[in-house]
Structures are given as structure tokens and as C-alpha cells.
Amino acid sequence: QTVYPRTESPVHLELQDTELWSCFESLSTEMILTKGGRRMFPVLRVGVRGLDPETLYDFKLDFIPCDNYRWRYVSRQWQTNGKQDNTSLNQDRRYGVTIKGEPYSHPKSPNYGRFWMSDIIEFKNVKLTNRPNPTKDDHIILNSLHKYKPRIHILQSLSNGQPNILLETFTFPLTSFIAVTAYQNEEITALKIRHNPFAKAFQEPRDRTE
Amino acid sequence: QTVYPRTESPVHLELQDTELWSCFESLSTEMILTKGGRRMFPVLRVGVRGLDPETLYDFKLDFIPCDNYRWRYVSRQWQTNGKQDNTSLNQDRRYGVTIKGEPYSHPKSPNYGRFWMSDIIEFKNVKLTNRPNPTKDDHIILNSLHKYKPRIHILQSLSNGQPNILLETFTFPLTSFIAVTAYQNEEITALKIRHNPFAKAFQEPRDRTE
DNA sequence: ATGTTTCCACCTAGGTGAAAACTT
DNA sequence: AAGTTTTCACCTAGGTGGAAACAT
């Protein structure tokens, strides 16, 4: 007879800006890749509870392929050719991580539970690239026209040289996206322009009541 | 008979940009205080050796009064009235530290010895203020027209809730300065403009050979 | 008279999507 | 034809000292 665990991990991660993410998700989120690295928008932001205040943790981010398809945007619809694509994803395991083959480490890592729980944790400085050999640690290598799902890992950091212990991994289906080198869906472009302050140059003058 | 220690701490801190600091020191360095907080220029930068790569350390910065005098710039010379000033420094021990009464903590604290030793450590984001109750942790409260000497503290950070252990404190006489709300010595102003990229608006066009 | 505060033009530094050029 | 790269104007964000206004 199956024995189910009586307790669950006390650690809770709560995704922020779910309303905004939903708007993008309903149109199929796209994220830009450039050689020099492009930030994500929206930014991945989470609140955390249930850590031990005085224990040391690392927070890390990587991207897991949602499938092995190559996606195309045809007639205002994302579609696949129905065949698995084994040429890129399966051959190069680095895709979705940094040049070191490791997830992106939040720049405040390592830090104490009390620190991580004291404020929203923002992954605003991670950059997405299609360059196979980026020179910076904050660059995540992705494959254009492939679909990814962000994951956040919480590790216990040990200050004696031992490897860190992976405590838990959280995935956020709402934040999955297709990596592109240029936006395909113009509605996605419009949403980005509307909400990303750095794209203000392209905003139409808007009604104050909105 | 006096017994002298046979060993010294293996930790070495090496101040960077000593040539630049010397130029300022020879004119009497001044640092601006503002309500909103002003960065230091030059920036305090150090290299560190001799830490244990796998031990966790905090790096902290504060400012120790060089004396209890109030300084005046008269006839192109800094001078005191020869009397100790007991009204401000001795009554308010917070001067030279943050609003919490603590030194400024380098934003990458805590981190491992291998991290701190891997690159120059820059205190470029600390801000100096004369506001008695700043709202931000990166603000150091100083008293205008008083003279200070920067100190860097290295602490061992313990990930079990125990208070950190102060391992060593380094002072840098070359970087001492008088806090001011407006520059007094125009030669200091000229040096700041010449070397601080953010003051480029005030630079005279310069000869390329310089 | 002396010292402080506020506001400002002018920078650094770098994040946007558009459009044109380029590649295959 | 389909996708990628480069360059660009236009932003965000914020660090300078100057100058005038202000405070004591």
C-alpha cells in the first residue's frame, strides 16, 4: 500500500505580477534573444516564506524546455511541424543555463533566510542570449523558436567548501515563453510597450483614466 | 619582559588608486554631504588576500573621526580654532555609521573568501549624508566640517544566528577627508571634475596627450 | 558672514522596439 | 522566404558641480 508523506516542505514561493503574466500568457509569451543579452519582461519576481531565518541559501534560475519542437508563427498562430527536433536541444545540454552549464545565480546569493524573506526577490538582471559562448555569468543561453519554462531553485549554501544542497525547485507554468530574435505577435509587442518603462519611446499617448 | 606575537594575520588588504588618492590628499581631500546622500569620489577600492576561500565573510565600512575639531577653510588653508568640539561628535555616536548605528555593509555581504578575493572590492554605492535620520541603509551620517578616516572591517559571518565575529579592521590614512556641504578648495573641485566621469559636463576640452 | 539647501543642465550607463541590412 | 544581426532614436535611472536661494 502506498505511503504518502505526512508533511510537506514548509517553503512557499509566490509568483508576483500574476495578472500581468496572465495577459502575456493568453497571447503566448515571447522573450527576445540578442547576442549581447536581453532582459526578460515581465521580470520574474517571487516572495518566499518558510525559510529558516539564520540558514544560508542560494536562489537560482534556469529554463527547462517545454518540449522538443521548433515553433513557427504562421497566420497569427504558433504551431509546430509535429516532429521532435533533436538537432539542438538534445545535443547541447547547456541551453537554458549559463555558459558554465549552471543556472543563473541571483546576485544576492548566498544570503540568509531572513534576507530572502524580507522583500520580493527579483530576477531583473538575468539576460537571455542566443550566443553559444557568452562572456558573462548573467547570460542564459536559449535556442530561438523553442519554448521554455522558468524554474527557481533554492539551495542550502554550506560555508565549508561542500557542494550546496538542492532543497527545492519551483516551476511557473504561467511564465512559460517562446524565445525569439524578433517579436512575432504584434499584440505581444503592444503589451511589452505598454508595461515596460524602457519602451516608453514607443507608447501612444494614453488616457489618464486607464 | 614583553612577549611579541610570532605570527601575524594572513589577511592583507591593498588600497587601490593610491596615486589618485595621493593627489587629493596633497590638497586635503573633501567629500560632499547632501540630504539625499552623495557618493564618495574617489571610490574606496581594495584587493584582499589571505582569506579562507570557503569561509563566509562580511565586509563593512565606517568612518572614524580623525579629531574633535571643527575645521574652517580660511585664506586657502584648512585650520581649526584650536578648541575641541564636544557638542556633536561626542554626543552623537552615530556619526560615521548608518542610521542603525552600524557600519555600512558591502552589498555583496555575506560571501565566501573565494568571492572576495576574486576581484577588487568596490564601495562605490555608499552615500554620505548630513541628514540625522536617513531612510536608507546605504547612507552614512557625517558631521560637516569634521575630518574622517575610512575603515574597512572584515567579519566572519556565522550561518546559525550567532553574532558575526570581527576579525580585523583596516584604516587608510591616505583616504582621510573633511566632510563639506560645498567644496572649499577649488583645486579639489578641479581634480574631482577631471577624474569623475559623472562630472564630465564641467570638463574643459583636454589635450589628447594628457 | 558663514554655511546649507534646492534646483538645474549636463553628463554616464544602459534598457527599449523599429527598421534596414544581412544570412542561409 | 524565413530568420538573424546591427544600428539607431528615444527612453529610464541616476550621478555631477554650479548658482541662486535660504538659514542662522
From TrEMBL, chains A, B:
* Source species, domain of life: Eukaryota
The answer to whether the entry has keyword S-adenosyl-L-methionine is no
Keyword Nucleotide-binding applies: no
Q: Which GO terms describe its cellular component?
A: chromatin; nucleus
Which terms under GO biological process does the entry name?
cell fate specification; positive regulation of DNA-templated transcription
The protein's location, in the record's own words, is: Nucleus
A single Gene Ontology molecular function, please?
A: DNA-binding transcription factor activity, RNA polymerase II-specific
What's in the keyword line of the UniProt record?
Answer: DNA-binding, Nucleus, Transcription, Transcription regulation
Which residue numbers delimit the T-box domain? 15-204
Q: What is its main location?
A: nucleus
Q: Where is the composition biased (Basic and acidic residues)?
A: 203-210
Listed name of the protein: T-box domain-containing protein
Fragment boundaries within the full protein?
A: 3 to 212 of 329
